[in-house]
Fold this sequence. Notes:
The structure holds three protein chains of three kinds.
Chain A: H1 3-8, H2 10-27, H3 30-35, E1 38-40, E2 44-45, H4 46-67, H5 71-98, H6 110-116, H7 123-146, H8 149-167, H9 169-178, H10 180-189, H11 197-227, H12 230-282, H13 291-305, H14 316-338, H15 343-362, H16 367-370, E3 383-384, E4 387-388, H17 392-414, H18 417-427, H19 429-434, H20 439-465, H21 475-488, H22 493-509, H23 517-531, H24 540-560
Antiparallel strand pairs in A: 1-2, 3-4
Helix pairs in contact in A: 2-4, 2-5, 4-5, 4-7, 5-7, 8-11, 9-10, 9-12, 12-17, 12-20, 12-21, 12-22, 13-14, 13-15, 13-20, 14-20, 17-20, 18-20, 21-22
Chain B: H1 2-8, H2 11-37, H3 42-73, H4 80-101, H5 103-106, H6 108-135, H7 144-165, E1 170-171, E2 181-184, E3 187-190, H8 191-213, H9 215-225, H10 227-232, H11 237-263, E4 265-266, H12 272-285, H13 290-312, H14 324-338
Antiparallel strand pairs in B: 1-4, 2-3
Helix pairs in contact in B: 2-13, 2-14, 3-8, 3-11, 3-12, 3-13, 4-6, 4-7, 4-11, 4-12, 6-11, 8-9, 8-11, 9-11, 12-13, 13-14
Chain C: H1 2-22, E1 34-37, E2 43-49, H2 56-72, E3 76-77, E4 80-88, H3 93-104, E5 109-114, H4 118-130, E6 134-137, E7 157-159, H5 164-178, E8 183-188, H6 192-207, E9 211-217, H7 226-233, E10 239-241, H8 246-256, E11 266-269, H9 276-282, E12 290-294, H10 300-314, H11 323-340, E13 342-344, E14 347-351, H12 352-360, E15 365-367, E16 370-372, E17 385-389, H13 392-397
Parallel strand pairs in C: 2-4, 2-5, 5-6, 6-7, 8-9, 8-10, 10-11, 11-12
Antiparallel strand pairs in C: 1-14, 3-4, 12-17, 13-14, 15-16
Helix pairs in contact in C: 2-11, 3-4, 5-6, 8-9, 11-12
Amino acid sequence: MNPALTQRFPGIRLGLIGGVSLVLLSLIGMVETFNQREIISDLISMGQTLLLLTAVFIAYLAAKRGREHGRAQVFGASITAGLIMAGMLTLLVLLGQAINMRQVFINASPVLFQILIFQQEELWAGIGLLLLAGALIGFSAALLCLLPHWLRRVITTGLCSVAGVGLLQDLIAPILSDWSLLADFTDLLFPGNGLSISGAVGLFIVVAALSALWSFRGQALQTRIKALPPQSRRGLNFAALLAGALVMLVLPQVLGLFLSEVMTIVGLYILLGLGLNIVVGFAGLLDLGYVAFFAIGSYTVAILTSPELGFFDWNFWQALPLAVLFGVLAGVILGVPVLKMRGDYLAIATLGFGEIIRIMVLSDFLRPWLGGAQGIGKIPKAAIGGFEFATPQEIYYLILAGCALVGFISWRLRDSRLGRAWMAVREDEDVAQAMGIELVATKLLAFATGAGFSALSGAIFATKLGSVYPHSFNVMISINILCVIIVGGMGSMPGVAVGAIALVGLPELLREFAEYRLLVYGAALMAMMLLRPEGLWPEATRQRELHEEEDAVRASKLAEGSAGPRS
Amino acid sequence: MLQRIRERLNPTDIVMWSIGGILLIMICWGSVATLVKGVYSTHHWIDFIIFGLAQGSVYALIAMGYTMVYGVLRMINFAHSEVFMSGPYTAYYFAAYFYRSGLLESHPVISMVLVFIISMATSTLIAYLLELIAYRPLRGAPRLVPLITAIGASFFLQYVFKGLYGSGFQAYPVVKALEGHLMVGPIRILKFQILVIVAAAILMVALYQFTQRTRLGKALRSVSEDKEASALMGIDVDRMISMTFMIGGAAAGAAGVLYAIMFKQVHFFMGFIPGIKAFTAAVLGGIGNIPGAMLGGIFLGLVESVGPSLFLDGLGIVAPYQLKDAIAFSLLVLVLIFRPTGILGERLAVKKA
Amino acid sequence: MKRNFALVVVLVLFVGLAVMTIAQAAPPKDPLGCVAIKKGQPIHIAYWMVVAGPDASLGIDTRRGIELAMADKGGKLLGYPIKLSGQDTACNAEGGQAAATKIASDPTVVAAVGSNCSSEARPGAPILWKAGISTVSPSNTAPYLTDPKRGKEYDGYLRTAHNDKIQGAVAAQFAIKKMGVKTAATIHDGSVYAEQLQAVFAEEFKKLGGTITAQEAVAPTDTDMRPVLTKIATGKPQFIYYPIFIAAAGHITRQAKEVAGLEKTYLMSADGSFSPDFYKAAGETAIGMFHSSPDFSAFAGGYKDFLAKHQKKYGEKPIAPFHAHGYDAAMMIFNAIEKTAVKDGDILYICRQKLRDALYATKGMKGLTGTITCNQYGDCADPRIAVYQQTADNIKKLVNPEVPFWKPY
């Protein structure tokens, strides 16, 4: 592609990128699969929304790029992009008519092409419509780009929330209908498959109005809070904290069965994440075998409490301390041989340790003691007095208590002498040692603490599930937890919670995506890291460091002077 | 003398060495017990070794990609296993077409070369795009950030290919010329094993010579030595990094076809396990060290095929092959205890990775 | 001003709703409650299967069975459209639990199809039954799930897949009685399914007077099986039983011919790899080997029809072995709904306990996998398991053999 041409017409390059994305979305089957799901009944399906949102987004980018070349170019660029995208879909349709692509691309079905040409009988009429739609998308994206900032925000917020509610209908409808007063309101909003048209319009108006209100009044509110005297601001913070704690306590009662289940899963990952955060985030030791301690915790509880194996017949509370103890011991045992290793040698050695544990648990060799492939079942629920932690809503409290405990411990550890030693080791091992930090003990303590937390999480996991299987402890769990703490912001404790919600909670909510769940997950991981390398809720010092570097770079660029802001 | 030894010994070293010692003793004991029992004849052992060599050559080829990228960027390119998968999976459709049209039967060499080229081209393209989209914007970000985009890219690529080609298993067509076995003296070797071992060896030697002898190879090495200095010397660092990814991708694409010749199946998830094994091999040999990656790969392949019978059979452990990965990883830990930077040692400019 | 307007809108809505609530009629009585479906609303069936991750082909395959069953019903039951929603279970216990909880939290779900892996069903099925949802599994084979001692929490659980206990025993009888072998070796892949099947086989084989020379295991992701086969060859078994899935079974079948000493050994696998995809994976090396599978020769016509529809809709042959079980599971549910649903004006009532009882009462239903009759513990698969031999002809055409080689009954 001639660079001068793409400079002159910014729509072309973006249009081509967008076109490739749309063709890919169609060919991997997302469009057809999601076409059965309606966002708004009888009007627009999830598959169409997917194409539409992608196209509008790309066209909007093109329009924005075009604005740098003067106002006239806004329309030119975005309509060009829209037409190119539609054109590439047209090519796909024509190719699909000419040859049978299904031999290779199994999702290139006649149904897909029918969707792409708006179910038209006549091929050319459909293609005409497709191209028209492309031009219209470009036109509206350009309009959107020219709107004042606040209005654009109001409109996009409104549209996105309609799409979101339509997407999550299976989740929202049961919760709404739980409250008898709202039950019929639910029927009105979701008459069958998807939102009703009136419901969608109503929702859009309400959200847009709220958003408009916020964009006018929000600023004022924020400045008013900032203007408060420090004492009452502290009071406000405290009140917010208290309210937050109260909300956490009553949340499962409000949210219903499934969301409570999601919260328990997120909670387990927060427990795991807080543990790994000590090893990776505080002490800087890359551990890819973290699942091993989770497995040790689970299996300890299972062996000690399950009547199926018949060695012991303890209850959960008796087994719990032992599970944590074994976890800590395993942490030390793993820690010793790998202490001398640095960086990624450590990563691969720990990964190996995780696999060894899983394979041992699965093996026929240890089957009489560990249950082998058939796992261990009939693990009793935890109980206090007569109260049993059985349903997700009840187990939630068990996990909440665990999170509070572990959160408190790691918060105190972070600001302790040991915590500072960890961070010193993370920043520079040699200097830390020179400053008199005992490397061996410091690293071992990090491993042991992290392992203990993980084992605690594993213990709760075993009683929550009622049965343990070796397949639950594969290397993907370790990788997931690592993603949680990095996406959240390495070393940051609130970051762990945010990361777990984003990477564990959202995919659970999006079970709708079924076979495309992991695809979306992968794309989201990349996008999050590319947009926010420091994580969603970074540790304050770390963020400062990162930005210092950036500022330095910017300063040096400015000093060069001649370069100037070109892009 | 004794005083000095006592001073130098610290408790962790003792624990470390005793763990290593116990592992070693178990290995020796198991091996002796197996050999005394004499269930396996010499022929069996030779068979095991050849299986291991063939498997190990494939690991070694994939490991090249890991080790080269690691040398330049100091990052685990987690998505390399998907680069490995994309090539043979795409080339499958051409191989199947050649089979149907009879070209595979009449001109096996031409069609196999074509399949190789297609596979390598696809893998190279994917590796290039991967670097461009997922890694290049993150130069200078904290070390673990590119690791996460790599994991994300790995998922993304897996499921894109699953969406494109479906989630079933595809069976590579059988090349008639590669069926059957040859006798080398008393030793029976399957024909495709010879092809896999020889082709992998040629590719690896070629790659090694390329990095050592050619101008481009020298530029690559200088970038992995010191990016700033190479930039000052007039080397386009970004281009060289792209180049590294593409060479690694081509090697993975070739490894993929060899893998498909050996095991006849392709699947969207096929890259994951060989990927992890190959990275282990790279670490085993010493990260950033190309001969090390080769050695590590072959070592790992041999341990997997010989290990379970040799070490565990004699101890009377049931179903030892289930434990082969456990053996491989234990040996990895053992090697790293005695040589913390791999068998051949790492070749990284800045020692701290 | 805007705020006031929004308030008014909300108030008006609430008043309207309250009026509508009062106007509603009382539903029929059922100990577990009934689902009321208004005109135009769908009958909601949920699946919980593994549709993502490395085992995705299993779930996608069974889901297609359900979708084709829906298509055969014209997408409608008693004039109400069928809606199929689904949850991914990831083939592990925690995935099964989460998916089941999600389904259980949706009061519109009438019945469920799933799960795929037995480890998912163990924590999942009780959660569904607690919400009154019956579930029919197309591919769980672990004996525990339909054991008389399984406990009341599994009362809503049924399956169209074969209990390992029946299938493993048939294979052992076949080896001893028909083939007259004295020694056998087994291989499993660490999955709940294969491990159990080979254990049952070994037990029955020994009971009938045979000797097991080795019980080996591999990982489902393993590719190089030659070492393990070489090890098995040292015990000189006459028969190898490896009831595992397509990929690993394909590797074993191919490589068994390449290992010295196993050229004459009989090979046998189970329904986990009884599919055209396996013939692709194993190629000509599969000729002469045996598979145990339900005897569907009587219904082969129906199955052919099914295959044609499958090809038309998805552009490929079935990708895993349990699609027909999925079809039958869905059909069982549809039949039970048609039997028990009550129409009251425009509202269709489907009552949960009645539906469950109707499912358990399924008798003599002609399915794709045989005649489906449920026993009191929810085992519904046709107990007639036959043994098939692969011929050069069917391998070349990539179809399952039509006539059983041996029948135990």
